[in-house]
Amino acid sequence: MIKKEVWDKLHKESEGRYHKVTDFARLVYFNFMKGKKGKVLDLCCGKGADAVFFHNKGYNVIALDFSNEAIKQFNEAQKRYDIFVTSMVKDVSEPLGYEDGSFEFIYTRLGLHYFTDKELKKVFKEMTRVLKNDGLLMFQVKSVNDADYGKGKEIEKDMYEDEENHVRHFFSKEYAEKWLDEFDYNIIMLEERQIPSGSAYIEVVAEKR
User: Fold this and answer.
1) Which of 30, 85, 105, 185 is the most exposed place for a label (fewest CB within 10 A)?
2) Radius of gyration for the alpha carbons in the chain, expressed in angstroms and rounded
């Protein structure tokens, strides 16, 4: 249920920001990826800071985002720093277009919590299809314990649209486990992270069986 015009506007208004690697990307690299080789699919990549981080660590990265503005700024940054990461505008709730088992790693930070339950089923199915056996699925989403939980119009259980038309589907640990169990993953890490600002996240690393 991602609204393209909302995200194009948000990225335009934040031009020049969010170009630094995130703590979650560092966490998964140093604890779960370091020393391993392979291709990384970065879904809902935003302006590409984490994709560039993985690229600089030696991975072949493909980065996708729904927003034309995000990919535009990502590509402009790549030109400035003379690097190349494959980046494309793509609605990840639709078929991804890659062959089965194409990637060793799938990474998505704050991307999965924009979809309804019905859409998430399609997203998990596609992610699982293009991930190799024993590959790692790594994602971070907003938690039901986040300060913004319950604000705005309810879309469905644990999903709300705020006054700025920003939609979020908040995850509980149990809800994350539901998807991982349904699509046959071994859970390596499933933790809740809370920070002083009131933000709270569910962070997951799981291995495809």
Assistant:
1) 30
2) 16
Give the start-to-end residue ranges of the domains of the chain: 4-208
- Specify the 3-state DSSP secondary structure of 139: strand
Above 70 in pLDDT, residue 8?
Answer: no
Give, for 207, the enclosing helix (H) or strand (E). strand 200-208
Tens-digit pLDDT profile for residues 127-144: 999 999 999 999 999 999
pTM score, whole prediction: 0.92
- Answer whether 119's CB lies under 8 Å from 92's CB: no
The amino acid sitting at 36 is: K
The separation between CA 113 and the C-alpha centre of its own chain, rounded to angstroms, equals 9
C-alpha to C-alpha distance for 46 and 67, rounded to whole angstroms: 8
